[in-house]
Design a protein that fits this description.
Elements (H helix, E strand, L loop, with lengths): L6 E2 L37 H8 L4 E7 L5 H15 L4 H21 L4 E8 L2 E8 L19 H8 L2 E7 L2 E9 L13
Parallel strand pairs: 1-5
Antiparallel strand pairs: 2-3, 3-4, 4-6, 5-6
Helix pairs in contact: 2-3, 3-4
Length: 191
């Protein structure tokens, strides 16, 4: 579940990195662009976010071949990682759908291998998918009867924000997901 409609944040300053907010309203929160993001560097670092939320910072990186099996492989990788990190099941489902859509787009419209990154820092989960096609993804207006063309609309609906950034001869497309402040089972028993 999301707390509202996703914001698409696109620009020339690069894709978000762990510890970096992606939504404009977060620019003054810890971890804003320009602050150090290595663990222990600053209040907005992954280590500080981990201490504030009770979640350990985690990362998974994978490279997938551009085949029809890539979306299934990405779903398996992401689902396994998120469950091992004790991410709530509703978020696991949303990220699983989003990664399937982004990797399917990379297979259909991209070139070369597909890079997949999943970063968990505090109450923030960032999914990034890279392919070798530099052209920007296009969110389509689709006819009600169309059976295709809704991938980015789905990503937008499931995430708190999403966007893309050119990277050399390719691009990253990313989606961010908010998590509850406390991992499952960590709530204060007095509440």
């Amino acid at each position: 579940m999301t707390s509202g409609p996703a914001q698409s944040v696109m620009g020339d300053d690069g894709p978000p990195r762990p510890g970096e907010p992606v939504a404009d309203q977060a620019a003054e929160e810890p971890g804003s662009r320009g602050e150090p993001t290595r663990p222990g560097d600053a209040p907005g670092s992954a280590l500080a976010l981990e201490e504030m939320s009770g979640r350990a910072a985690q990362q998974r990186i994978a490279r997938l071949d551009t085949t029809p099996r890539a979306p299934s492989q990405a779903r398996s990788l992401v689902t396994g990682a998120l469950r091992s990190w004790s991410v709530p099941e509703a978020t696991v489902s949303n990220v699983e759908i989003a990664v399937s859509e982004l990797v399917s787009n990379a297979v259909e419209h991209g070139v070369g291998q597909i890079d997949l990154e999943l970063d968990l820092a505090g109450a923030r989960l960032l999914l990034r998918v890279r392919d070798g096609e530099a052209s920007a993804p296009v969110r389509r207006t689709v006819d009600e009867q169309a059976v295709r063309g809704r991938g980015l609309l789905i990503v937008e609906a499931l995430s708190t924000s999403w966007g893309h950034h050119a990277d050399g001869d390719g691009k990253w497309v990313w989606a961010e997901f908010a998590l509850p402040d406390e991992p499952p089972g960590e709530a204060d028993p007095a509440e």
